[in-house]
Each structure stands twice: as C-alpha cells, then as structure tokens.
Amino acid sequence: MTARGRGAVPRRVASRKGVMAEAAAPRAEVIAACRALTRFGLAHGTSGNVSVRLDERRFLISPTGVAYDSLRPGDIPLVSLAGRWFGRLPPSSEWRFHRDIYGARPEVGAIVHTHSRQATALACTGRGIPAFHYMVAAAGGADIRCAPYHTFGTQALSDAAVTALKDRSACLLANHGVIAVGRDARAALKLAGEVENLAVQYCAALALGGVRLLDEAEMSRVLEKFRTYGTLEAADPELEFGGARLARAAKASR
Ligand SMILES: [Zn+2]
C-alpha cells in the first residue's frame, strides 16, 4: 500500500525562523550525508538525494540541483507528507518517493537515493541482486529487487519503489539507480554503499559465469544472524567472555 498522505493537514509552521531553529540537527544530517555520497564515490555532480524524517508528518530533503559542497542549513527544504514544502529552495524532484516511503514505513528515519555506478549499470539490465552473497541479507531479505522503470519524479515511479522495498531496506530502480533506507542517515548511507559493493561483486561474478546462489534455508540462517548481530543473543557458545579489561584478560589466558 502506498500512503500518500492525502487529506493529512500539514502542521502549521509559525515562521521560517521557527522551522530553522527546530530542525538544525537534521538539516546538518542531510548535508553531511550528501557530502558523504560524493566522498564515498556514490554520487557524481548533483545526482542522488538524501532525506531525514522530522516526525510522522514531515521530512527534510536535499534541494534540487545544488552542488553538495555549497549546501548550507537554510538551503534544506522541509516537506510535509501532504505535499507542501517550506524553505527558500525547492525540494529534489524525487520528493514523491521519499514522501511515500515515509508514509508507508513508519520505522524509516532517513532515505538515500543514488545513481551509483555499478548498481545503476545492473539496474539498466532490469536485474536486481539475488542471493549470490550472504551480505545481500543486509537489505533485509533474500534478494534486492529492481523496480520497473518509470519516469523520474512520477507517482508511478514512487509506487513501484514502495512495492520493491516491501520487507526490504534497499531496492534498485530500473534504468535509474538505487534507494536505501535506514533508521538514520548513517544507516541508509552505509546500506547504499553496501548495495554498490554487492553490485560490483555480482557483475564481476556474472562476467565469470556460473554464479552459484545461496538457497532459501541458508539466507534464512543469515537473516537470523543479522537480526541478533552484535547482541548477547548472538554470542557464540564456543567463545567465552573473559572480562572487559584487556590486560587482565591477556594475563588470565597465559
Ligand atoms: Zn534519481
């Protein structure tokens, strides 16, 4: 289902100054993530965009056509799920799928969209990324789907993206690029980088031929391990905790 927020009344914004003061940290988060896109080689020029959720009805998104280097906090427009925007620069032309993902996925706190090189090349063949490597599970399932092509900025593209993202944190967009979502910009950015890395590996494996896919049972095991990764629940029974202090632990192990 695509939540378009139609009929929702956007929260009244008292003044632009009020909005600016309220959202200083998430504006900085949008700008930092935009710059990281370039630094990580995931964006070229002004391609791609980043948004951060403010609350259940509003988000901040990178503006259209502004070089990431010159972005300042006041350049970041605020958009309501009802489709109203506030600020001095208009939002990215892809604001629709950002709005619809926030509407459909309450757990999503940030969205990164890229035209990263290899993932986009793969998407230009209409292919998603199957379970060729266990890290595919980083996007939440046994594959990373590729949404069918629709013109950029359209409702049709947005609907296709929301469908391809069902139970996933990332998808490809045919003949276009990548969407990665996360609880915050850092998580979404990390996943966008992982999708690009997987696309590089998958294309290399395709070129070699004879790609072997992991089966459903193995991907379920990996997904379960990812769910508990880094928690006590995931503790390896053959690895015993020896204490928090390294010196003492080293002495004890002698
Ligand atoms: Zn795009």
In the CATH hierarchy, the architecture is 3-Layer(aba) Sandwich
Hetero compounds: zinc ion
* Helix fraction bin: 25-40%
CATH superfamily: Class II aldolase/adducin N-terminal domain
- Tell me the strand percentage band: 5-15%
Q: What's the CATH topology name?
A: L-fuculose-1-phosphate Aldolase
Order of helices and strands: HHEEEEHEHEHEEHHH
Count of separate DSSP helical elements: 8
**CA distance, first residue to last residue:** 60 Å
Structure classification = alpha+beta
CATH top level is Alpha Beta
What average pLDDT do the residues reach? 89
**Anisotropy-based shape:** globular
Largest sheet: 8 strands, mixed
Query: Main sheet: which strands, in order across?
Result: 4-3-2-1-5-8-7-6
When the domains are counted, the total is: 1
Computed over alpha carbons, the radius of gyration is 20 Å
Give the low-pLDDT segments: 1-14
The total count of strands amounts to 8
Structural commentary:
With 254 residues, the chain is of the alpha+beta class. It has one domain: 3-Layer(aba) Sandwich (L-fuculose-1-phosphate Aldolase), CATH 3.40.225. It has helices at 16-22, 24-39, 95-104, 117-123, 155-164, 185-208, 216-228, 246-253, and strands at residues 49-55, 58-61, 78-80, 85-86, 110-114, 146-147, 170-173, 177-182. It is globular. Mean pLDDT is 89; it is low at 1-14.
